[in-house]
Specification:
Blueprint (H helix, E strand, L loop, with lengths): L2 H23 L1 E18 H4 L8 E2 L8 E16 L10 E11 L6 E10 L10 E13 L7 E10 L4 E9 L4 E11 L6 E14 L8 E9 L3 H4 L5 E17 L1
Parallel strand pairs: 5-6, 5-9
Antiparallel strand pairs: 1-3, 1-12, 2-4, 3-4, 4-5, 6-7, 7-8, 8-11, 9-10, 10-12
Length: about 250
C-alpha cells in the first residue's frame, strides 16, 4: 500500500471514528409533530433576569435599554413518541413555553434558554414549567379551493401557582416557508442540561399588528399572576407573531 493510500485509509478511519463518537454522545429520545404559534416581545429585563441561573446574562437588545427579547410559544403537540416509537404519556399535549437568548461570559456558552412556562406534564425535561390546572386550545380554519384561507385560535393556560395566560389570534393565512434546522436548547434551572433539536417546520410570519403588511386581523394577549404580571407589566411590546402550521422534531441528549 502506497503512502497516499495509507493516508487516505487513515483519514477515513478518523472520520468514521468521529461520526461514531457523535452518535454515541447524542442519544435519540423523542419525536413529535405539532402546531405552534409564537409571539415575540420586548419586556422588562429586570423582571426576567432573576429566572436565569447564576453566571448567565440576558443578551442585550440594541436601541432598547432595559428590555430584552422574550419568546412565548404555544404548542399543540399532536403526536409525541419516545425512541421506541411508543406514545409519551397520552401521546399528545398542550402547553406554553417562555424562552430567551442568554450567555455565560466565563464559559463562553450562549444560546436559547427555556426559563418558564405552563404545562400539564409538570416541570418537564427542563424543570422550569409551572404545573397546569388548565391548558386549553380551540382552533378553527376556513378556506375555499386553492385559497390560503383564514385561521382563528384561542389559548387559555393557568398554573397552580396563580399565573395564567390567555391569547386569541385571528389572521389570513399565506403559503408557509419550509425550514430545516438544528438547535441546542438549554435549561434555565440546570444550564448544563441541553437537548439538541433536529427540526423540520413550516413558518408563516404574520407580521406586527397594525403594520401595512400584517395579515393579523385581531390579536390579544393577557398574562396575570405573581410572576407573569411582573414580566408583562404594561411596558411590553409585541414585535411579531408567527404561525407554525406544522413542526416536527427529533430530540437528542445531551
Amino acid at each position: 500500500m502506497s503512502f497516499l493510500q495509507r493516508l487516505f485509509h487513515h483519514s477515513r478511519l478518523l472520520i468514521c471514528f468521529a461520526l461514531l463518537q457523535t452518535a454515541v454522545a447524542q442519544d435519540y429520545v423523542e419525536w413529535s409533530t405539532e402546531t405552534r404559534t409564537a409571539l415575540s416581545f420586548r419586556v422588562n429585563a429586570a423582571a426576567v433576569s432573576p429566572l436565569l441561573p447564576e453566571g448567565w446574562l440576558l443578551t442585550p437588545l440594541e436601541n432598547a435599554p432595559g428590555q430584552v427579547a422574550l419568546s412565548v410559544t404555544f404548542m399543540d403537540r399532536h403526536v409525541v413518541l419516545d425512541a421506541q416509537g411508543q406514545a409519551v404519556r397520552t401521546g399528545s399535549s398542550r402547553y406554553m413555553v417562555m424562552s430567551v437568548q442568554a450567555g455565560n461570559a466565563q464559559s463562553g456558552e450562549a444560546g436559547t434558554m427555556i426559563i418558564n412556562g405552563i404545562s400539564p406534564e409538570g416541570p418537564g425535561a427542563y424543570e422550569v414549567y409551572q404545573p397546569a390546572i388548565t391548558a386549553d386550545v380551540t382552533r378553527t380554519t376556513a378556506g375555499q379551493g386553492e385559497q390560503a384561507g383564514s385561521s382563528e385560535e384561542t389559548w387559555t393556560l393557568a398554573a397552580q401557582g396563580g399565573d395564567s395566560v390567555r391569547m386569541t389570534l385571528r389572521y389570513q393565512k399565506a403559503a408557509a416557508v419550509r425550514r430545516q434546522s438544528s438547535v441546542v436548547i438549554r435549561s434555565g434551572r440546570r444550564p448544563a442540561f441541553t437537548r439538541t433539536y433536529q427540526i423540520d417546520q413550516a413558518t408563516d410570519a404574520l407580521g406586527v399588528p397594525g403594520a401595512a403588511d400584517s395579515r393579523i386581523e385581531q390579536v390579544s394577549f393577557e398574562a396575570t399572576g405573581p410572576l407573569f404580571s411582573r414580566i408583562f407589566d404594561g411596558t411590553q411590546v409585541l414585535t411579531g407573531v408567527t404561525a407554525i402550521p406544522w413542526y416536527s422534531r427529533e430530540i437528542f441528549v445531551p
